Amino acid sequence: MSDGLYQHFRPEETDFIAQMQEQLFRVSDQQIPYLTEFLNPRQVFIVQSLVGKGEGIHCHCSSHYFPMEMQRLYICPDYYEVAWTDFGISLLAIAFPSRFVELRHRQILGTLLNQLGLKRTTFGDIRVTSEACQVFVKENLADFFQKEVTQIGRHPVRLSLIPAELALPEQDDYRPKMVLVSSPRLDKFIAAGFNISRQVANQLISQKKVTVNFALTEKTAMQLGENDRVSVRGFGRLKIGPFLGESRSGKMKLQVGIIKHK
User: Fold this and answer.
1) Which domain, by its residues, includes 94?
2) Beta strands in the chain (DSSP E)
3) pTM of the model
C-alpha cells in the first residue's frame, strides 16, 4: 500500500493493513482463497476498502448468511462460488440452569479470554437471553470449546453444537443520533454520545471502563473512524457512523448509533 493510502487509517492499524495487503496479493497472484479470523467491524471495513481497490478478487462476508457483528471474510478470485460452509464457523449452545442462574455477556467473554486465554479472533458473536446463550466459534476449535468450557463464573455449563439456523436473533437496538465533535477523539465521542462532560469521559477511560472494538483502551485521544464500536461500562455502546460534513461552527457532523444501559 502506498504511503498516501495509509493516511486514511490510524497508525495502530498499519500492521493489520500490511498483513491483509500481503494476503490480498497472494489471492490475486496465486488465485488461492484466503479465510480470515473473526474480525471486528472496523477491521471488516478496512479489508473491504482494500479489496475494493483490487482487481479480480472479491470479499465475501459471513454476515451475508447469518447476521453477526464479528465476522469472518472469505477472500477469493471473483469467479469462485462461495457457500456458508467455506467460512468454517460453528455455533455452540451454552446450556446452564436458567431457572436459577442468569449468565451475562461479559461473564462469557471473560471466561473465554481470561480463564482459557483465547484470542478474540477465535470466536465471534456471543448471543445472550435470559434463557439461552450461544457463541459462534471457529469450526476447527469447536471440540476444544466443548471440552474446556465447563464453567462460567461459578456456574456449571455445557456446550453443544447446533445448526446455525437456530442462532438467536442479533440484538441490534442502536438508536441513531447526530453528534458534533471538534475532532474524532474517543473522549469527545463518549461525551457527545452520552451527554456527559469530557472530564467524566476521561475518568471512565482511565478507570478501564471503555473498550474500542472489544479491546480495552486507556487512550483518551484515540482517533475513531467509521464502523468503530465503543462500549462504556455502566453507560452503553456507541457505533460510529459516517462523516456527514461540517457544522457552521466548523465541527464534524457524524451519525452514531447508541444503546444506553438501563
Assistant:
1) 89-166
2) 34-35, 57-61, 73-77, 89-95, 123-128, 133-138, 151-152, 155-156, 158-162, 175-181, 210-212, 215-216, 229-232, 236-246, 252-260
3) 0.81
